[in-house]
Amino acid sequence: MKSNIILTGYMGSGKTTIGKELSKRLDMKFIDTDELIVKKAGMSINKIFEKHGEQKFRDIETEVAKDMKNINNSIISTGGGIILKEENVKALKKAGEIFLLWASSETLYDRLKDKEDRPLLKVPDPEKKIKEMLEKRKDKYQKSMDYKINVDKKNILEVTEEIEIIYLKS
Ligand code: S3P
Question: Which numbered atom of ligand 1 lies nearest the CA of 16?
Fold first, then answer.
C-alpha cells in the first residue's frame, strides 16, 4: 500500500470527519486540500468563487493535487470536485490509495441543507442540484477510486473501521 490514504466523495460524504478520525487512530497526519487552497488564495472558498469564479478555484485545486506527491504518511481529504479533472486524479493516484465515500443524494442533502459554505449549492433548489451533480460525477468518482465505502446509515466509527481494516490488510 502506498503511504497516503486519500478520501474522495461528494460534499457532505464525511471526508473531513472521517479523515480526522482516521488520522488519530492510525497516527497519521491529516491534510485537507480545501484548506490548502484557502491558504494559497488567502481567502475562503466562498470568496474565491465570488471574486475570481469557479475556474480560478479549479486551477488552484489542480496545483494542490499536484503538490500531494510530496506528502507522506497522511490522510488526505479532498474537495468533492477534485475528480473532475483527469490530471488531478493522476496526481492523487501517485500519492496514495483512493477511498471513495459514497452516500445517497438524500443523505447528502440532509447533511448539507443548513450549510452556508458550499458555493455550488447556493441555488434555489439545492436538493435537485445535488442529484444532478451526483449523476454527472458518478462515473468519475467510480473510475478514480481504489475502494468504495458506502456511508449511508453508518456512523463515524463504522466507516473509519472499514477503511482502517482495508488499509492495514493491504
Ligand atoms: C466542491 C466541494 C467542496 C469545495 C468546493 C467545491 C465540489 O469541498 O472544494 O466548494 O465541487 O464538490 P467539500 O467536498 O469538502 O465540501
Answer: 15
